[in-house]
Amino acid sequence: MFLRLLFVLLIAFNIAVGAWLLLGQDDTHGRSATDPGVPTLHLLSERPVAPASTAVVANPEPVAPPAPVTAPVSASTVKTTPTTRPNSYTCISIGPFATPIDMRNARGALSAQAARMRSRQEQTTQTRGWWVYLPASASREQALEQARKLTAASINDYFVVGLGGQPNTISLGLFKDPANARKRRDEVAAAGFPAQMTERTETVPEYWLDLAVVDSARFDWRSRLHNNSVGSHSTGCF
């Protein structure tokens, strides 16, 4: 029994020694400790010593690159941009035009000469004439009696107002010329009647054309419109 146990132990010992000899001796078989393609690590003590003639400079300062060489620029090659002076303008108003069509025609005739244009409409009061009359009576009968007295005094061309804002007034005429109106008033007053004279007005639209023209431009609007019924005056620029 003892011999059999000793024999088994010897076999196990031989197997262990053989495994150690086979697996634990990598250097003897020339195997590399690194993967293929990976450089081998070396200790500092294993690096070759640099020759004594090679000088090592510690902490070298950076050297600035040389500045580019620029060719000299002559005064003749330098171009200066001319300064543009802003234009100054004169603004005028032309009118009044009697109708919008007249104003549009003028706008088309002057559009090429103006830097800016605008149209506008205004309301103005115009004189319709001068009215000569006798003040209103208290009643229709009194107004008719006054009319008969005018006829007896050889004063004709009158009209008794029956409707409207001034009933029972006797109209003695409407005149465009104020001198003629004053003459008629004086004649009736000389016959002993209280004749009076007043101006008749109405509000009507009128049309204007405003233009901004460069001062240096020669602008003659009359030569293009040929309309003697309109005029012009200066206005604020827009």
Features of the shown structure:
Alpha-Beta Plaits, SPOR domain-containing protein, SPOR-like_sf, alpha+beta, rod-shaped, 5 helices
Detailed description of the structure:
Residues 128-195 form the SPOR domain. InterPro entries: SPOR-like_dom, SPOR-like_sf. This is SPOR domain-containing protein. 26% of the residues lie in helices and 25% in strands. It has 238 residues and is an alpha+beta fold. Among the domains are: 89-125 and 204-234, Alpha-Beta Plaits; 126-200, Alpha-Beta Plaits. Strands 3-4-2-5-1-6 form a 6-stranded antiparallel β-sheet, covered by helices on one side. The protein is rod-shaped, with a radius of gyration of 61 Å.
Number of strands: 6
What integer value in Å does the Rg equal?
Answer: 61 Å
Measured between the Cα atoms of the first and last residue, the distance is 134 Å
Question: Which architecture of the domain at 126-200 per CATH?
Answer: 2-Layer Sandwich
**Unreliably modeled segments:** 27-31, 52-60, 73-78
CATH topology of the domain at 126-200: Alpha-Beta Plaits
Largest sheet descriptor:
6 strands, antiparallel
Organism: Dyella koreensis
Protein name: SPOR domain-containing protein
Domain SPOR: 128-195
Pfam family, one: SPOR
